[in-house]
Amino acid sequence: MTQDILTDTRGPAGGEQGWRAKAPSYALLPLRVFLGVTFIYAGLDKLTTSGFFQASGPNSVGAMMSAVRDSAAIPGLVDLALKSPGGFGYAIAFGELAVGLGTLFGVIGRLAALGGALISLSLWLTVSWQSSPYYYGNDLIYLMAWIPLVIAGAPLYSVDGLWAARKRRLR
């Protein structure tokens, strides 16, 4: 009699090593890939958008931050960014790129996810705070999506996983 792969929890020796036992380990991979690719794309998009790092003008970080200043939950964060719009823009762009690469390849996965959560939190409290109802703002869902990766890290198909396996072998 053939067992369904989704309901078979028996391993070769009859232990709990089947698909169901392994599924939790794989459950975060789609989220990790999505967030990693999205943040890499976001960082590269900012780095390649003409005029993004300017204090004013179309597509500029300065114009965007000026537009959301009065509706932000914490206007002081926006004021801080407006002191050096170019520096803030580069910090966000390179931060997104580092977070995306770290998440996608699982390099210090928890720290990368924490960086992603902090970027998403700062954007939610500034850029998308005025979204009404709240679920129209995308930064809040990104913040929530980072939390499982902060908790679990990147144990599978990752540099972190390779490091952990090497450490186990050396013991």
Oligomer: single chain
Sum up the overall morphology in one term.
elongated
Structural class: mainly alpha
Radius of gyration: 20 Å
According to DSSP, the number of beta strands is: 0
Helix content: 55-70%
Helix segment tally: 8
Descriptive tags:
171 residues, mainly alpha, 65% helix, 0% strand, disordered N terminus
Q: Could you provide a short overview of the structure?
A:
The chain is an all-alpha fold and 171 residues long.
Describe this protein's structure.
The chain is an all-alpha fold and 171 residues long. Helix content is 65%, strand content 0%. α5 (85-105) packs antiparallel against α6 and α6 packs antiparallel against α7. The radius of gyration is 20 Å and the shape is elongated. The termini are far apart.
Secondary structure elements and their pairing?
Elements: H1 19-26, H2 29-48, H3 61-68, H4 75-83, H5 85-105, H6 109-126, H7 138-152, H8 159-170
Helix pairs in contact: 2-5, 3-4, 5-6, 6-7
